[in-house]
Design goal:
The chain has about 375 residues and is α/β, with parallel strands linked by helices. The protein has 2 domains: about 300 residues, Alpha-Beta Barrel (TIM Barrel), CATH 3.20.20; about 50 residues, no CATH class. About 45% of the residues lie in helices and about 15% in strands.
Length: about 375
């Protein structure tokens, strides 16, 4: 399935629908136009990496001299450039308290433009702290999280978007360093009354770093207020993907699964796992445009999200890293699944996101479901 968004009327109607985003990376949702202005205002120059994705040296002048060149660099993600090289554009703009606040507000402004009223923005504080070798930060992990929470609080005041962060463990961390990240997250865990962190996540290069390597770090959250979500069965073949799903659910006690591209095959092959997800109300954080763009699936239909919904899995549809590729907005993801499965499916996944949001009260969920109903009717999705 090619990503064609030629039904402009349908896309615009989808943009009018209020949505909650449960799988969204903070450093992947800051518009590159904003990042370009930020670097220019600070008098900082941007450069292409020294090497292409294939290892060949970059020849000639490497300075990025215009917004168009920066966007061209972004669009070379996983084609010409390593994923870390592209993400460094945003990560290196988030190395001080003031920058974290600025980028938190920028993220809220973007989300507001997308009718996103609630987001569990995930980020890896290690990348913005004194521990990150490629960065310039002098902040501790606690200071990074504290500054970020203050930034999101200001973002909510300005743009009305409720952000509850999820803290990422990057898979390249040692088990001891992973525990440091979790300890920092526990210091700011959300208690339902004040602003705080709602969960932890495991993200990064899955093939070399299976979830069992981080079981001790995750176990420190058992009994806490923190929820657990894991990027699992995203970058690996079916055999390893299924193994990672089992480890995530039974070993690390995941409350959410990010991606799960082979999960639909377990409906018939391993129904017990599907049953566990239903009983424990474990959400699937699907990101169809993301896995299409990165090449982990060839067609959004290959995810068989309709079958998972029919089987009772709490499927949510998310934008993942909307600033990192063209047509990455939440509405574009809804467009893809809406064209495949229809308006009722769109309604279902939107309600699933509200109902499985970890930082919304029951009263808040009722309110946003009612507001969604009004918007679905006014935009012709339901009668």
């Amino acid at each position: 399935m090619s990503l064609q968004f030629d039904d402009i009327d349908y896309l615009e109607r989808l943009r009018q629908l209020p949505n909650a985003q449960l799988h969204l990376h903070w450093d992947g949702c800051i518009p590159f136009e904003f990042l370009w202005d930020h670097y220019k205002d600070q008098g900082r120059k941007l450069y292409l990496p020294e090497r292409h994705l294939n290892g060949e040296a970059v020849k000639g002048d490497r300075e990025i001299k215009s917004l168009a060149e920066l966007v061209q660099f972004r669009d070379g993600l996983l084609k010409q450039w390593n994923i870390g090289d592209v993400f460094d554009v945003s990560v290196m703009a988030m190395q001080t308290r003031e920058e974290l606040k600025t980028m938190a507000i920028a993220a809220c402004e973007y989300l507001s433009s997308q009718n996103t009223f609630y987001a569990e923005l995930r980020f890896a504080p290690w990348l913005h702290s004194q521990y990150y070798e490629r960065g310039t930060s002098k902040l501790s992990l606690n200071e990074v999280i504290e500054a970020s929470l203050k930034g999101f609080e200001e973002g909510e005041r300005q743009f009305g978007v409720n952000v509850k962060p999820t803290i990422c463990i990057t898979r390249d961390l040692s088990p001891d360093d992973a525990k440091k990240v979790v300890e920092a997250a526990l210091n700011f865990q959300y208690d339902g009354k004040r602003r705080g962190v709602v969960g932890i996540d495991l993200a990064g290069y899955e093939p070399s770093f299976p979830p069992e390597l981080f079981s001790e770090a995750f176990s420190t959250t058992f009994g806490s207020n923190l929820k657990r979500t894991i990027h699992a069965d995203e970058m690996v073949d079916k055999k390893q993907g299924v193994k990672n799903l089992y480890t995530s659910l039974f070993g690390l006690r995941a409350d959410g699964i990010g991606h799960g591209i082979h999960l639909h095959e377990l409906i018939d092959e391993n129904p017990d796992l599907i049953q566990i997800m239903k009983i424990l109300d474990i959400r699937l954080e699907s990101n169809p445009i993301s896995v299409l763009t990165t090449g982990f699936v060839k067609d959004a239909a290959d995810l068989h999200l309709d079958k998972l919904v029919e089987s009772g899995v709490k499927v949510t549809v998310n934008a993942d890293d909307p600033a990192m590729w063209p047509n990455g907005d939440p509405a574009h993801s809804l467009y893809v699944v809406g064209k495949l499965y229809g308006d009722k499916f769109v309604e279902t996944v939107l309600r699933n996101s509200i109902d499985s949001a970890w930082g919304l009260s029951e009263q808040g969920k009722l309110y946003h479901n009612e507001l969604l109903t009004i918007n679905l009717k006014s935009n012709g999705f339901i009668q």
